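Page 47, continued from p. 46.
Same chain as before, 109 aa.
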Amino acid sequence: MDIETTFDMLSSSVRRTIIAVLHETDSIERQQLTATLALLETEGGDEDLVRQTRRRLRVSLHHNHLPRLADGDLITYDDETVSATSELDEIAQNVPLPNVDVQIAAISP
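Result:
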């Protein structure tokens, strides 16, 4: 991946968090990814705010973040699941990413 594509992938805090989550889990259900991102963004606040944030993120993931990460060969995804590629692992090992361990564990089924 060229440097401009790498910077584009890392320019969004949402995409950096997705990279961090997938670096920890390798694969995650889209619903769980959306919930994780919403909890991180709202810091586990008010339930209504978390619900609204989930709705907004669901659309943003579908139309923006997941296609961009897939175009950069960092992920593969379908209607159910998002999975890391070896490219994602390479980037994740070389840039500082948010710590997402606790938030993922908090909503695991």
